[in-house]
Amino acid sequence: MKTKSFYALASIAGLGFLVGLIGMYDRLLNGHLHTGYGSYVPWGLWVVFYLFFVGLTAGAFLITIMTYVFGIERLKSVGTLSAFTVLVALMCELIFISMDLGHFFRVYRFLLSPNFGSLMTWFVIFTNIMLIIYALESFFLVRQKLVQWADEGRRGAGIYRLLALGKKGYSDADCDSDKKIVRILSIISLPAGLLFYGTNGAFFAILQNRPIWNSAMTPLLFVLAALLSGGALITFLISVFHSDDEIAKILAKAVRFILVVFLLLEFIQFFVGYKTGVTSIVTSLSLITSGPHAWTFWVAHLLIGGLLPLLLLIVRPQDTRAISWACLLIVLTFVTVRYNFLIPDLSVYKLEGLEKTFFHPRLRTQYTPTITEWLASLWIVSIGVLVFISGIRWLPIVSSDQGGCDHV
Amino acid sequence: MARILPEEDLLVRMQRDLKRSLAGDRSAIRWTMVIDLAKCAGCHACTIGCVAENKLPPGVVYRPVIEEEIGTYPNVRRRFLPRPCMHCQNPPCTKVCPVHATYQNEQGVVVVNYHKCIGCRYCLVACPYSARTSDFGEWYTGPTPDPEGKMVGRKKAAEGYEATPAAEYGKQWPKRGHDSPVGNARKCHFCLHRVAVGMLPTCVTTCIGRATFFGNRNDKVSLVSELLGSPRVHRLKEELGTRPSVYYLQ
């Protein structure tokens, strides 16, 4: 990563980190006191971001699977970058969902009294499995370079030695062993990952009496949404951090295809919902299309995150700059897709008249994120960006894919 | 000449039913509530009684009374629907709880173990009746000014109401801070702490129209068992298969 770009990004993220500290301080000191959600819309911005980061892992996850399980040579130059992307996105996702818990320090309860009938338990299990797999995979992918850099006495050699867990010298046997471990981890991550994404969709789909979620289409849309946002992210990262434009161009074609299918499925969802005419479904859909935050659907998602990238990917499929812009737009605006998935369905009253009986801001279905929620989110996103760009700059994330031990 | 015969207050009968059930095999008890909508006057005494009994903070309500206006002028009427926790026999909320913090006790009452609850609010989302609310740690007296030298101020008000521990689930919950039940999902528990000592739930005793009935449906001579035989009986959202233990008389 170029020094100038690094410092520019690091400065922005550093500023975000400092400003976001105010939100984190408020969250840690006052709990959920200054949040906008309540009992009828029990989840808010932090869950939106958690869903967003779940999706962002998907594209990079697929790349690692294609590289290390199916051995697609073409992608080997972006394997480590993909594994590291999954790791950082998972880390952000976990911080976001931890923030949302009323009693974060009771997470040990998942070990003491887990309810295996709850999809949330399985979500926690698969998230942790993925986190462990990708932490180990990233480690074994960069180990050779870490040892090499430490042995060369590079600046920060002590840290590289520490990260390599004190290992000195790297033999061919080590390379074979690392290659084997990476392959085994990737093979395990394939079913774990599929279950991870599937669980996330089913998590919402199984809830009865939820107008839009309670549908067999939800897990499908979830997987597709994850592939779209995650695919766009990894395409953007490859087009920015890698010199191999061809991979970005191939991935851009896949992103274009997934975007079309995703928009089509969204259209079907709206068409069927409106045509069926069930009050709760129509109310939920109408909150998306004409509610107080309808601009997030029409302008942010459909126009900036849908049609504009599609146009760029159709008109200029060979232009790396256009590809990176298109993918960046998809990624950035995908938060609104997650928002419109989560909030409108929660905003539909389950019992007619409930809104007029007991007045309190926590007992309303209108939800607008508070400044505390935004600042804490900014803090977490900034941490994610700082970790990611630091890894790209100071760790052998990109260089380990270029020469050295061949893991594919 | 017409003469009004003396009639036993229904509360007395329910009290007797309650004591009989408690004296017998407790595992055979299935606590049940019946609400006669034709008798409900919409006074909200049950809501207020519940809030006072359980020391509920702002934004937490166990038993709101839903009001609806039906029809068009001049043919209009108002309808009131008290909505406690339905204590479903097939509860969707307990199934989604990842840590078994909410469950059915042996008498069929859906309860929350505040010390286990992690505050994920999945149960709030899963409940089809919106019967659960989350305690976000607010105080009624939070914004109350506390000027020095005044008799009535924040501290006094807090001490008078909010600093008094609630007795939910038979425990003395500490002064409100960061600890449970702050951060937890909260819900109606049929006033189990009162029932355990032979008292009826607060919403039953505060009901001015005697529209709320409580008892053991497995006790065939109890008032609730008698009422469940009425053709007016129905339950909310029966189609979901949740099988509530709260019945309504239309």
UniProtKB/TrEMBL annotation, chain A:
<feature type="transmembrane region" description="Helical">
    <location>
        <begin position="45"/>
        <end position="71"/>
    </location>
</feature>
<dbReference type="InterPro" id="IPR005614">
    <property type="entry name" value="NrfD-like"/>
</dbReference>
<keyword id="KW-0812">Transmembrane</keyword>
<comment type="similarity">
    <text>Belongs to the NrfD family.</text>
</comment>
<feature type="transmembrane region" description="Helical">
    <location>
        <begin position="78"/>
        <end position="99"/>
    </location>
</feature>
<feature type="transmembrane region" description="Helical">
    <location>
        <begin position="184"/>
        <end position="207"/>
    </location>
</feature>
<feature type="transmembrane region" description="Helical">
    <location>
        <begin position="294"/>
        <end position="315"/>
    </location>
</feature>
<dbReference type="InterPro" id="IPR052049">
    <property type="entry name" value="Electron_transfer_protein"/>
</dbReference>
<dbReference type="GO" id="GO:0005886">
    <property type="term" value="C:plasma membrane"/>
</dbReference>
<keyword id="KW-1003">Cell membrane</keyword>
<feature type="transmembrane region" description="Helical">
    <location>
        <begin position="119"/>
        <end position="136"/>
    </location>
</feature>
<keyword id="KW-1133">Transmembrane helix</keyword>
<feature type="transmembrane region" description="Helical">
    <location>
        <begin position="219"/>
        <end position="242"/>
    </location>
</feature>
<feature type="transmembrane region" description="Helical">
    <location>
        <begin position="374"/>
        <end position="395"/>
    </location>
</feature>
<feature type="transmembrane region" description="Helical">
    <location>
        <begin position="254"/>
        <end position="274"/>
    </location>
</feature>
<keyword id="KW-0472">Membrane</keyword>
<feature type="transmembrane region" description="Helical">
    <location>
        <begin position="7"/>
        <end position="25"/>
    </location>
</feature>
<dbReference type="Pfam" id="PF03916">
    <property type="entry name" value="NrfD"/>
</dbReference>
<protein>
    <recommendedName>
        <fullName>Molybdopterin oxidoreductase</fullName>
    </recommendedName>
</protein>
<feature type="transmembrane region" description="Helical">
    <location>
        <begin position="322"/>
        <end position="341"/>
    </location>
</feature>
UniProtKB/TrEMBL annotation, chain B:
<keyword id="KW-0004">4Fe-4S</keyword>
<feature type="domain" description="4Fe-4S ferredoxin-type">
    <location>
        <begin position="108"/>
        <end position="137"/>
    </location>
</feature>
<dbReference type="InterPro" id="IPR017896">
    <property type="entry name" value="4Fe4S_Fe-S-bd"/>
</dbReference>
<feature type="domain" description="4Fe-4S ferredoxin-type">
    <location>
        <begin position="76"/>
        <end position="107"/>
    </location>
</feature>
<keyword id="KW-0408">Iron</keyword>
<dbReference type="InterPro" id="IPR017900">
    <property type="entry name" value="4Fe4S_Fe_S_CS"/>
</dbReference>
<dbReference type="InterPro" id="IPR050954">
    <property type="entry name" value="ET_IronSulfur_Cluster-Binding"/>
</dbReference>
<dbReference type="GO" id="GO:0046872">
    <property type="term" value="F:metal ion binding"/>
</dbReference>
<dbReference type="Pfam" id="PF13247">
    <property type="entry name" value="Fer4_11"/>
</dbReference>
<keyword id="KW-0479">Metal-binding</keyword>
<keyword id="KW-0411">Iron-sulfur</keyword>
<protein>
    <submittedName>
        <fullName>4Fe-4S dicluster domain-containing protein</fullName>
    </submittedName>
</protein>
<dbReference type="GO" id="GO:0051539">
    <property type="term" value="F:4 iron, 4 sulfur cluster binding"/>
</dbReference>
